[in-house]
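Hey team,

Filing this mostly as a record. A colleague (T.K.) asked me to run one chain through the structure pipeline before their review meeting, and I want the input and output archived in the tracker in case anyone asks later how it was produced. No errors, nothing strange. Just documentation.

Input sequence:
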Amino acid sequence: MTEHSQPEYREVRKKASEFESREAYLNNELKIMSFKRWGVHLPFRDYNIEIEDWVPALAATIGKVVMVTAMVAVFAAQFGLSAEFVAENVRYELLIAGGLFVILFSAILNPNANLAGTHGPMIPLIPLIAAAGGHPLALGIMVCVFGLALAYTKGGSKLMTLTGVGVRGGLLIYLGAVGLIAQINATEAWAASADQGYISFAVIGITLAIYAYLAKINKRWLAIPLCSAIAGIVAYAMGAHFEFSTAPGLPPLSPMYWWGEDTGWQLGLPNLGHFVAVIPFAILAVAMWSPDYMGHRVFQELNYPREAKGVLMDVDDTMMVSSIRQGVGAVLGGGNLASSWGTYMIPAAIAKRPIPGGALLTGILCILAAVLGYPMDLAMWEPVLRVALIVGVFLPLLEAGMQMVHKHKDSLSAGICIFACAFVNPVFGWATTMLLDNMGLIGDAERAKELSLKDKLLIPGAAFVVCVGSLALVGQLPGIPALL
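Output structure:
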């Protein structure tokens, strides 16, 4: 990436009033920005903060509260910890890793690295990790170590390059469709639990109408704040229960409190056995990163102008930042497992904004939510969080995947990828179809002929062995008991 001198952005920047449309202004901003790989970047000197940056910031904050709560709650259930522990640990993550870390890395030091969010696909595996004798701190440290190794060798970007269009499209379609159905089912279950099933119908129906209209007028970037707000208002007006319960305050800030024998996690520090127990889970967590990161980068490529090379997400640097954030967060006492922050990147790409401006706002909002407490209650309220995930993550994923599949050969690869994902999970589907696609057994055979032996077989084969082997070790292959 070409590194520009610091004042250059200010010298070439034009005011929004000089353009015929807002979209033309935003596209020009993306074209003229080019960030250093590592260095100090400052708002209004190296990038601007626009009204559109509030959209991914709000979406990311809602998503962060939801995902970290879900992950810490599952950990807490395995170790017999209270709801108060969950609330305080989520606060701690929002304050330290979600707020200060995001501002330091993605807004200042490396704006080409996406924010480090939460590794959602690992949530169902947490009971297995605990049953295998795993320790949250040992798991966090091992994920950090393996992630740094992958980032240092630039394995993430290489795997993304070797993933064909059909495989990418199929992966996005599967993730979007499955996630969309899950969120709708969760909304219906929430309403039915209070004998108010009509509320879910009204909330989803209104969301569908608003989203369709925003798509028609090319304002989809407004979907998350607008649809979430309307969903909350409609649900409350129709009788859904809501109350604020998390009072303002600060969580315990000492790592020794969190990793004490009788405080925090009440687990003490891990021993060698704990580290050995989490190795396969840590390998699997890092193996899951590549398809996840690839999907987020694709969103930028689909929504940014082609000339906007200097603001695209760097997959390897994002892996490095996520790894560092994982290690720091775990050592400090947090219960989050890190990955690329999808609830930030997807709406940011749709809004045609680069990473740093929204990252700065996201960090500030996370800190405010942690200190004030009450915004956490609002973000976690079912109609708000479900609608935010539907319009901010899963519908755009589905649409992006469908946009990518144009050719007949790509549609075949996409179909097999969806089938393989449904058979096991997205990690298996991605690794399997990437190998088959690069060998020319599915998809574009001409593309396969142009690849070297290393790109055709060795690297995809190694990815397949690592992914499937890790899945087998932890019992994630259908009908096959865990080998561990």
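Quick notes for T.K.: Residues 1-6 have pLDDT under 50 and may be disordered. The two ends are 43 Å apart (CA to CA).
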